[in-house]
Amino acid sequence: MLFAFFSYMFTKDETLRSKLVKRAESNGFKAIVLTVDTPKLGRREADVKNKLGTPKLSNLEGLLSVDTDKKSDSGLQAFVSESKDASLSWKDIEWLKSITKLPLLLKGILTAEDAQRAVDAGVSGIIVSNHGGRQLDYSPAPISVLEEVVDVVSGAIPVLVDGGFRRGTDIFKALALGAKAVMIGRPVVFGLAAKGEQGVRKVIEMLNSELELTMTLTGCPTIKDIGTAGAMFELPVID
Ligand SMILES: Cc1cc2nc3c(=O)[nH]c(=O)nc-3n(C[C@H](O)[C@H](O)[C@H](O)COP(=O)(O)O)c2cc1C
């Protein structure tokens, strides 16, 4: 089954906020994923060092342009601080829920307390994520906090996870710890860079076949069976 989630961040431009949601709805997206861990961009020193350029984004069509904004610092950092609203809070989540019927998922939850608040706020799901470790040094690895988040949510809403999943065995561990799904970021980008569309397919096929092999070798015919078999599999040691 294929479906698309709309990746959403609060823009400073208030009219654009609802416009983007309406566009997502009319273009058939199945859910809104609100990123909650990026009020500002983390300090990405490699971007600064490499003077990361961004496409000229005077409007969304700008994405089609190959012209870049030449900034002395990271162009991405400049773009985020110019366009995104750093004051995002729980009341904005209430507003976002009020303007759409699409399920709303919060991406960037890393504590049991925030997971509980998300459930209380009536969102449809959460994504345990540290933004691929790209936002804040020393933020915990998502896999290390997954279990406590799953415990507190206790089945009220689905818990998804991302960050550092590179093997089918990694995915198996997350499913064993109670994640409903695992999301990937950089692996598909690596595949794309190496071999275009075929590379992306290859990455997904590799992860799928590794997961299937892990399931076979641990005696799990279906994803549902992973829960009990997870205990026999070596999980990360967490201090
Ligand atoms: C090139 C790139 C762009 C990203 N852009 C966004 C973004 O706009 N919003 C967001 O919530 N996360 C963004 N992320 C983070 C991913 O959604 C995801 O949390 C992370 O990449 C997962 O970790 P992984 O790359 O180890 O799989 C981006 C990641 C990469 C690599």
What does this entry look like structurally?
The protein has 239 residues and is α/β, with parallel strands linked by helices. It has 3 domains: 1-39 and 84-184, TIM Barrel; 42-79, no CATH class; 185-224. Helix content is 43%, strand content 13%. Strands 1-2-5-6-7-8 form a 6-stranded parallel beta sheet, with helices on one face. A two-stranded antiparallel ribbon has the order 3-4. Strand 1 (5-8), helix 1 and strand 2 form a beta-alpha-beta unit. The protein binds flavin mononucleotide (FMN).
Largest sheet data: 6 strands, parallel
> Percent helix among the residues?
40-55%
Tell me the domain tally.
3
Task: State Rg.
Answer: 19 Å
Low-confidence stretches: none
For the secondary structure, the number of strands is 8
List the strand order in the largest sheet. 1-2-5-6-7-8
Class based on secondary structure composition and strand pairing: alpha/beta
Can you say what the CATH homologous superfamily of the largest domain is? Aldolase class I
Amino- and carboxy-terminal Cα gap: 38 Å
The CATH topology assignment of the largest domain is: TIM Barrel
**What is the CATH-assigned architecture of the largest domain?**
Alpha-Beta Barrel
CATH class of the largest domain: Alpha Beta
Name a few traits of the molecule:
239 residues, alpha/beta, TIM Barrel, two-stranded antiparallel ribbon, 9 helices, 8 strands, 43% helix, binds flavin mononucleotide, FMN_hydac_DH_AS, (S)-2-hydroxy-acid oxidase, oxidoreductase
